[in-house]
Design brief:
Elements (H helix, E strand, L loop, with lengths): L8 E8 L9 E8 L2 E10 L4 H19 L4 H19 L8 E2 L1 E7 L2 E7 L3 E6 L2 E4 L6 H7 L5 H6 L17 E8 L5 E5 L1 H4 L4 H8 L5 H14 L6 E8 L19 E2 H9 L3 H19 L4 H24 L14 E2 L14
Antiparallel strand pairs: 1-11, 2-3, 3-4, 3-5, 5-6, 6-9, 7-8, 7-10, 8-13, 9-12, 10-11
Length: 352
């Protein structure tokens, strides 16, 4: 008798209103899929009830459009984020005018993770006892940190720390970051709103994520830690454990684009490919059709030659897109920052 193989994934999520808010405007998603799962965190904004509506609209639309979408998972995920953006934008009228939400989505597909990121919710990866921050905040204070005008500790207490520079519902086309990375057995991923990352330091997060406890219990522990730190905002944590390794998907994992978020149409164009092979494919289609129209007596031969050439170019393009997914697991483009112990805030320091 052979023991059943462990499930490849296990997840746990929790969201909490915190200690100083009356309404929870965060929302979380955990959706099982045949080859993995779709997980997300949304942190709504826009006044009483509006932020709560925006966050839930975003997650409902994200899951629905991803499940109904067609094409490669990176394109489906980006398209689902754009659909979520439009859902929020179209409901932002009347008493809900000006509402919006962050959105951080994690798609686990076989042995890979795809991350779509809008706003200042964060994704972390715990691997081999080290914590890696996978996302950069789309916020004013994060930009000042990148420019060297603020330290991480100053940003944590700055009066504008909650001002995001990118969110769903702001304009017709969403700006997002989309990238992928290979996963290993034993990896633990965390998605969280700034109600957690803005209160609990990364060194403390590392200590809380390290114990071999269930994702559900870890999520509870993280929420408790944020509340123990004052709970100034709504708090959400989604913890995903990779219990069994799997092979990489056949499509190329999207690379992180330098320069921050891109408009969705530009990002999708990059994913679909604008390589010389793509232009060659279009040229062959054009001249095949032109030959069929101008030389009707040779139509079967021209069509056959055109089909053979098109098939060869399409095969070469597919091979070119699959090959990059076999890059090393820990590349500079996939893991942005490690959590190093930092001094805890001094009691004399206060939020601005």
């Amino acid at each position: 008798m052979r023991a059943d193989a462990p499930s490849p994934l296990r997840s746990g999520l929790m969201t909490d209103v915190g200690r100083q808010r009356r309404v929870n405007q965060d929302a979380a998603l955990a959706l099982d899929l045949p080859r993995g799962g779709l997980y997300a965190v949304a942190d709504g904004m826009g006044g009483h009830a509006a932020g709560e509506l925006a966050a839930n609209l975003a997650l409902d639309s994200l899951s629905q459009h991803y499940l109904e979408g067609r094409g490669a998972p990176p394109e489906r995920l980006a398209g689902a984020v754009q659909a979520a953006n439009l859902a929020v934008l179209r409901h932002a009228v009347g008493e809900y005018a000006g509402m919006g939400t962050t959105l951080l989505a994690l798609l686990v597909d076989r042995g890979a993770a795809l991350i779509a990121h809008v706003g200042d919710s964060r994704a972390y990866l715990l691997r081999g006892g080290e914590l890696h921050r996978l996302t950069e905040d789309h916020s004013w204070v994060a930009e000042q940190v990148r420019l060297g005008h603020l330290s991480e500790e100053e940003a944590r207490h700055h009066q504008w720390r909650s001002v995001v520079s990118n969110a769903l519902g702001g304009e017709e086309r969403v700006r997002l970051e989309l990238f992928g990375l290979p996963l290993h057995a034993g990896d633990r991923l965390l998605l969280c709103s700034d109600g957690l990352s803005g209160v609990v330091t990364e060194s403390a997060l590392l200590e809380l994520l390290l114990p071999a406890q269930s994702p559900e219990r870890v999520a509870r522990t993280l929420i408790d830690a944020a509340n123990d730190g004052g709970g100034p905002d709504n708090i959400t944590a989604v913890v995903v454990d990779i219990q069994r390794g799997d092979r990489l998907p056949r499509y190329a994992l999207p690379e992180r684009q330098e320069g921050g978020p891109l408009y969705v149409d530009a990002l999708l164009s990059a994913q679909r490919g604008s390589s010389p092979l793509t232009y060659l494919l279009l040229i062959l289609v054009y001249f095949t059709l032109l030959g069929v129209l101008l030389v009707p007596e040779q139509r079967p031969l021209i069509a056959l030659l055109g089909a053979l050439l098109l098939g060869g170019v399409a095969y070469a393009q597919r091979r070119a897109r699959v090959r990059p997914s076999r890059r090393p697991a820990l590349s500079a483009t996939s893991l942005r920052a490690r959590a190093h112990p930092r001094p805890e805030p001094r009691e004399t320091e206060t939020a601005g």
